[in-house]
Amino acid sequence: MAKKKRPQKKAITNRRARFDYSLEDSLVAGIALTGAETKSLRRGHGQLRGAYVTVKNNELWLINATITGDVSIPIDESDKTRARKLLAKRKEIDALIAAKQQGRTIVPLDILTQGRHVKVRIAIGKGKKQHDKRETIKRRTQDREARRMMR
Question: In CATH, what number does 12-150 get?
C-alpha cells in the first residue's frame, strides 16, 4: 500500500530579509514556545515581518515575531509578539554575539515546522544601503528578462 503524501504547508518566511540585508552564513536554532503557539505555527499562523534577534544575558531572543491564533487556538493579545528564547549551542551563540559586536544584525529568515520540533533559521546580515537595493532590483529584472528571452 502506498503512503499518502502530506500536503506541503506554506513556510513562514521573512521575505524582506534578503532584500534589506546582505546575508552571510545561516544556522538553525530551536525556539521555546507554548503549546498553542506551536499549533498555530504548524497551521501557518505566524509572521516574521519586522522581527529580529537580540542578545540578553548571553542568550538569544527573538523579538517582534507575531504568532496569531484562531477560533480554536486562543492566544492572548499581549502574547502574540512576546520575546521568545532561541535555543542554540554555546559555541554558536558566542559566534553570533561576536558578529553582533562587530555591528552586524542577526535576522530570522524562516520558521521551520516540518519535523518534530519548531525551529528558526537565522542569519548574520549587514544592512544594505538604498543604492544596493536598487542594484538588486535591476539585476533581478535583467535576469527575469533574460529568462523570458530564452523561452
Answer: 2.40.280.10
